[in-house]
Amino acid sequence: MHTFQPISIDLLEFNPFTKIGKEWALITSGSKNAANCMTISWGGVGVLWGKNVVFLFVRDSRYTKEFIDQNDFFSLTFLDESHREALNYCGSHSGREGDKIKAAGLSLGFRHGIPYIDEGNLVLLCQKMSATRITEDSFLAPDIKEKWYKDNDMHTMYVAEIIDIAAR
Question: How many whole angstroms separate alpha carbon 33 and alpha carbon 51?
Answer without folding.
Answer: 30
